Amino acid sequence: MEFVRRFFDPPQGSFFIFGPRGTGKSTFIRQHFQDAWYLDLLDPENARSFAARPERLSEVAYAPGRSKQIIIDEIQRAPELLSVVHRLIEDKQGFQFILTGSSARKLKRSGVNLLAGRAVLTSMHPFMAAELGDSFVLEKALTDGLLPIVWGATNPAETLRSYAALYLREEVQMEGLVRNIGNFSRFLEAISFSHAAVLNLANIARDCSVERKVVEGYVGILEDILLAFRLPVFTRRAKRALAAHPKFYFFDAGAFRSLRPRGPLDNPDEIEGQALEGLVAQHLRAWAAYGYDRAPWDIYYWRTRSGVEVDFVVYGPGGIWGLEVKNNRSVRPADLRGLKSFRDEYPESRLLLLYRGNERFLRDGIMCLPCTDFLSRLRPGESLETACQ
Fold this sequence. Notes:
Trna Endonuclease, Chain: A, domain 1, alpha/beta, 17 helices
């Protein structure tokens, strides 16, 4: 695949870069830090050797002629190394550590403190539409997702199936994160129906025939291995009774499609609508993460107890935005109802509706944009207003 320039901007000092497998972390750091010394902990021999004797890292770091830039790929494979990294940073000998990880689970279980703030926490996400430029095709993104490892594959569908199996085998089964891999596989299928929806753990537990606390643990595992995230309810200055539960999303539209069962009783439009909302969600996450040092934004959703909802609320120093995503070719009056209710609650908000049509227009004070246009213009460090122009 042709090299795609990423929006990720590495910090000057030491930093962690977390992200699911296949998001391009290793490719990026190898190209950006070509003179660095590289330790690949996916290599079992390296992982065993350095986990057994972490002090070897000091010997390597102080070897004559060694680069001061040190990359440790998949640091969760040997979290014991973090205490050595901490000490080397404290020595103030000019070392820069670039530490990648595709799971925070083992680091949390090991009780490490992620260097107590001495290394910046960053994240790598699937491609953004603006990174791909003219290569971005909405229909392909909704089917295959935007993982670099899948986007450039000869057979994206097969790569996605292998990707899910890889995570089950290496991140879940081999690390011993669950006792019963069969229950977890059924859970993955059941929770795929909750993508882009309010998370109801009791219903999922009933579908899987396991206890609610087991499902809660499974969701935590998905978040720790970076396959999923939750959006909280926006409650600032709330006047109405609001929903209490977060919304659930897989990190990539392709990952969702690979896990979501499809059959004669499944509505294709419903699945595509979920994929479209998830695609917007993953773009907003990447936009906020990559541009956080310039303009910090937080992402929520809004839903009243009576069921009136706005898909996304983007809140930060630059204002408050309400975004609704519709998998329709035209905009109907009912599509604007949630945004209008949100405006009644927050008159200072800016409102935006994204849909599958081709025209941009203003209706009842709400900007309506083709989803492709918005995603293609969304760039980290730039405002949502710029993406609407």
